[in-house]
Amino acid sequence: MIDVIRDKIVGSTTSLFSHGPQALEHTLDYLGDPGLLGPESISWRVIGDTAAFVGGIRALLVQTAHPEVVAGVEQHSRYRQDPLGRLTRTSAYVTETTYGAMPEVEAAVSAVRTAHVPVKGRSERDKPYSAANPAMAAWVHNVLTDSFLVAYQAYGRERLTSAQADQFVQEQARIAALLKAAPVPLTAEELSAWVNEHPAIASSEAQKNAVKFLRFPPLPLPVQLGYQPLFQAAAATIPTPLAKLIGIAPACGAAQIGSATVNGLRWALGSSPAWQIALVRSGAPVPAGLFRQPLPVVPTMA
Hints:
It is a single chain. By secondary structure, this protein is mainly α. The chain has one domain (about 1-280). The protein is about 60% helix and about 0% strand. It is built from 14 helices and two strands. It has a two-stranded antiparallel sheet with strand order 1-2. A hairpin with a 5-residue loop joins strand 1 (about 120) and strand 2.
């Protein structure tokens, strides 16, 4: 019965990320390649944990606080018509840049930079925006990095030390460099201040629309029941001034319920299979007890 329950949770969760090309589909073609960050990185540990679900939701919420960035999403994205497709593409990008072999990392970054070229326009406050602008790319990247780190520190398997948190930020900065995003802080403290005190943040109608969508996305009822505690867990980690600007407030007990939900997902899912297959590809040892799915078959040389 326990295995049945676990398998149902696994099936419901993985189905959310199956609406497009799958990340790392051919990663074992690059045996021995450690990728951009490598098996000793903090990033593999942080993004491979189920707390990353909370981090992803938090990032989407906080990113709406920049009127020009959210205008680009509102005017150019099909997130309302194809939310799971967008989720799959975003997840694939994070997975490939974090865990991919170098050819996969470079392809993922190139695809994003190409997609950003036509994303131009003007926001509600009549300011121009371009997704290819290094400052706009920096907002999206830095918020994502900050959110993964904050979520892991709140709900992860164990807290990182200050040095480890800084290392995570510096590792993620390597991805930002490939994206040509700038500026990119290099310590956790500087990153948090950069995001929370950013001079461009303001409320907007596009932000309200995006937050309304994120609060109740069109998910199947069983998945919606799992999503809501994660949404509340994300809201609980956003500093009060920024949360007020975004227009959210966590429910009573949101952090505790969110923690229990993340722990339940960790029990059912184990750590990310992307982390596991990246360890196999790079030839690093696979820690016992972290992964639920069986090891992939490694091709042998003839």
